[in-house]
Design a protein that fits this description.
Layout lengths: L8 H20 L13 H10 L5 H14 L2 H8 L10 H21 L1
């Protein structure tokens, strides 16, 4: 069996530093909150940040959360509603979609 190695002096120093920082953050009520966002939003997020002089993603997320929490129920509902860009297919595309649906329905009817 391999012997268990003692941490180096530098490793102990770094651990004490992390523990001290964690204790300070806990005393201030700061906790780590990780947000994973689809990459497709990044260019738009960077543009909004640049337009409004925000240079830190953490800052923009905190502002959004503070505004959401401070808002009334109806405003929160509006803010949380998923906004999509309306898509109106052309007549040609619409016709092709209906033809494909009919084809698929006829295939499923044939299998029965």
């Amino acid at each position: 069996m391999a012997e268990e190695q003692e941490p180096t002096a530098e490793a102990l120093k770094q651990r004490r530093k992390r523990e001290k920082a964690a204790a300070k953050d806990a005393a201030l009520g700061i906790e780590k909150f990780t947000v994973e966002v689809a990459g497709v939003f990044k260019p738009d997020l960077k543009k909004v940040m640049k337009d409004h002089g925000i240079n830190n993603q953490q800052d923009i997320h905190q502002r959004l959360l503070m505004n959401l929490i401070a808002a009334g129920f109806d405003t929160q509902a509006k803010m949380l509603r998923c906004v999509t860009t309306p898509y109106a297919p052309s007549k040609k595309m619409s016709r092709r979609l209906y033809e494909e649906i009919e084809r698929l329905e006829s295939l499923t009817n044939d299998e029965e």
